[in-house]
Amino acid sequence: MPAPAGTAGYPPVFRQDSPLGRPLPVRGAADGFVYCGGLGFSFYALVVNLPSLSPSEIAGRYGPRAPVKTVAVLLFLIAFGFAALWLGEIVPALVSGHAPKSVQDAGLFTSPVHVLDLSLLLPAFVIAAVMLLRRKPAAFILAPVLMVAGILIIVAVAGMVLAMAVRGFTIDARIAAFFLAPAAGLVLVLVRCLRV
Fold it and tell me: How far is CA 127 from CA 124, 149, 173, in A?
């Protein structure tokens, strides 16, 4: 059976003519590594460097002009935006008694992205935002790490959307702009934070 249009560039394991005998998703093949890499790199960079960091010393380097409220708002927006996006797929599936379409298409029991985001990453964004508003010293370590993770993950998701649009999938490519706008905002705020 020939590979469906737009999937010829992917290894067979990610195509509809998979040797595993069932269709696997085309989307997310290479970009999934970027997503995982962004999350993993940010997490392990924090873990490796945490013993050498002094939260109160780092917090003291941020002056009164540091955009604490702006960063907190951006972290909240990313957390609630992605939670709404994922729950917008999960809740209707729960109500209907079926797995979400993306999970069915992937042939999985659940979405690892939904699990990681809803259980670890998005709560970390909310916790960091609350800690920033309370000016807790540890927030000044956690927030920049999450901002970098957010930038990498948002760019990866936007890249997936654009790749799907280019490959002929029925998806609105303007969604990529929806993702890239907060990434650009995060970059600008992160640069401003590092200059303060």
Answer: 5, 15, 32
pLDDT, tens digit (0-9, with 9 covering 90-100), for 51-62: 887 888 888 777
| Residue in 136, 178, 137, 140 with CA at minimum distance from that of residue 160 | 178
Report how far Cα 143 is from the mean position of its chain's Cα atoms: 15
Average pLDDT of the chain is 75
* pLDDT 10s digits, 140-165: 888 888 888 888 878 877 777 777 77
Three-state SS for the chain is CCCCCCCCCCCHHHCCCCCCCCCCCCCCCCHHHHHHHHHHHHHHHHHHHHHHCCHHHHHHHCCCCCCHHHHHHHHHHHHHHHHHHHHHHHHHHHHHCCCCHHHHHHCCCCCHHHHHHHHHHHHHHHHHHHHHHCCCCCHHHHHHHHHHHHHHHHHHHHHHHHHHHHCCCCCCCHHHHHHHHHHHHHHHHHHHHHHC
d(CA 146, CA 136) in angstroms, rounded, equals 16
pTM: 0.70
- Nearest alpha carbon to residue 152 among 3, 31, 52: 31
